[in-house]
Amino acid sequence: MEMTDGRGPDRCIDASGCEAHGTGSLDFRLEQGEGGGDAIAYTVTRTHKGDFQGIAPTGRTTEARGVQIARFEDGRIAERWGSSDELGILRQLGVDSTG
User: Fold this and answer.
1) How far is CA 65 from CA 14, 56, 57, 62, 75, in A?
2) What pLDDT digit, counting tens, does each position of 2-11 carry?
3) Dihedral, CA atoms, 79, 62, 85, 88, nearest 10 degrees?
4) Which one of 4, 9, 12, 79 has the fewest CB atoms closer than 10 angstroms to its CB?
């Protein structure tokens, strides 16, 4: 995924994709919103090929949904909030989340 010049709502989409640490491939599907508003919902499919939260590469493919909300000033993101199903990702990687 290429980064934009940092202007407009597409930057929010790019920024959320950049959180895919430890991946060798990334498929970003916009579920709701068109990048033209202040909020988007998405699904990210990734292949775990590098360190992710201290977990060595597994080669497994994970899928997670998320949302990004941004406040824009002069066509640039001034603030951004987001959430994704990181617990779901960890479970898909085989991490025991029971403690």
Assistant:
1) 15, 22, 21, 10, 26
2) 344 544 445 4
3) -160
4) 79
pLDDT in tens, 34-55: 555 688 888 989 899 888 888 8
Q: What is the pLDDT of residues 62-83, one digit of tens each?
A: 999 999 888 888 878 888 899 9
Nearest of 63, 65, 95, 61 to residue 83 by alpha carbon: 65
pTM for the predicted model, two decimal places: 0.64
Cβ contacts of residue 73 below 8 Å, gap of 6+?
none
Let me know: does 84 contact 15? Beta carbons within 8 Å: no
Structure tokens at 91: 């479970």
Q: Are 9 and 24 in contact (CB under 8 A)?
A: no
